[in-house]
Design a protein that fits this description.
alpha/beta, seven-stranded mixed β-sheet, about 30% helix, elongated
Length: about 300
């Protein structure tokens, strides 16, 4: 059953403010540090326009922003994408390819169990090290943190993840959760990681089975950058300190609205409606927009 208060809140929802933000973000790059800050400014300006008090924090955080990547093998240059936190090797890294057949279900769960990850194709850590050391691993799936960590630990010098389908997906390959601090930063991957599509992956697997080499190139923009975090604090009616946190990232690898512009617009409207009805709230609400893709977690 919807309560009277819930009905009032739902009736107050309008598409005007959120849809205008979606249209704006559909044309706005939110990828590099300066683009991301412009995205935060756009959110903050709309919050103020709707009468909401917004505080914009600006910490310096470590970012790893993928720019470009490629894989050269068998005389062919293949298109690729590097995940956030991959090692940058713009000059290229060349080594023999080795193919490990992946258990995609285990990869999705970030498993580190060797038998589970590779469907029984590798029986032990010792065998894995013998196959991988000094080689570039090519396997199905995504260059996820667990797999990247294992390949590096086993002495591999690179990882190529073969995505399903014709598209190549962005992602992250670090075991660091969130933006790294100086204690976490040494855990950043020390090998280049790239993603390719299925057709490229099949070609590279064939080269690996024939004992061929490949060259991985990755270009990244990395370092500490000031990044804006707009926050709206909506107090409870009784002034209580407890609050519900609503948050989401506003940056995006590509220009578009799927990830996460529609979520940003929804948060904008939630903040507008709850602020207008703050006298009825039993708990406070904190609404925060933050850059997430290039910190390794989103």
């Amino acid at each position: 059953m919807i309560t009277d208060q819930e009905r009032r809140l739902l009736d107050a929802v309008s598409l005007d403010a959120p849809w205008e933000l979606v249209e704006t973000f559909s044309r706005m790059p939110r990828w590099r540090p300066e683009d991301v800050n412009r995205g935060a400014d756009a959110i903050a300006e709309r919050l103020r326009r709707n009468g909401l008090p917004v505080t914009v924090h600006q910490p310096e955080i470590y970012l790893s922003i993928p720019l470009s990547a490629s894989v050269e093998a068998g005389g062919v240059m293949h298109r690729a994408k590097p995940p956030s936190m991959s090692l940058a090797v713009p000059g290229g890294r060349t080594a023999r390819l080795v193919y490990l057949p992946a258990n995609l279900k285990a990869l999705r769960s970030y498993s580190r169990d060797v038998k589970e990850l590779f469907g029984g194709a590798i029986a032990s850590e010792e065998e894995a090290r013998g196959k991988v050391a000094g080689h570039i691993v090519v396997t199905e799936g995504f260059g996820n943190p667990a797999l990247t960590s294992l390949v590096e630990e086993w002495g591999g010098v690179g990882l190529i993840a073969c995505n399903p389908g014709v598209d190549i997906h962005w992602g992250t390959c670090t075991t660091i959760w969130g933006t790294p601090d100086l204690d976490d930063l040494p855990r950043k991957p020390k090998i280049p990681v790239v993603a390719v599509n299925k057709a490229t992956g099949e070609a590279l697997m064939a080269i690996a089975k024939a004992g061929g080499d490949a060259t991985i190139r990755t270009e990244m923009q990395e370092g500490f950058f000031p990044q804006k975090i707009p926050v709206v604090d909506i107090p409870a009616a009784d002034g209580g300190k407890e609050f519900v946190l609503l948050h989401g990232h506003y940056d995006s690898w590509d220009v578009g609205v799927g990830d996460n512009a529609t979520g940003d617009a929804t948060m904008l409207e939630i903040a507008r409606v709850l602020w207008a009805n703050r006298a009825t709230l039993k708990r406070g609400v904190r609404v925060a927009w933050w850059p997430g893709h290039s910190t390794g977690r989103y």
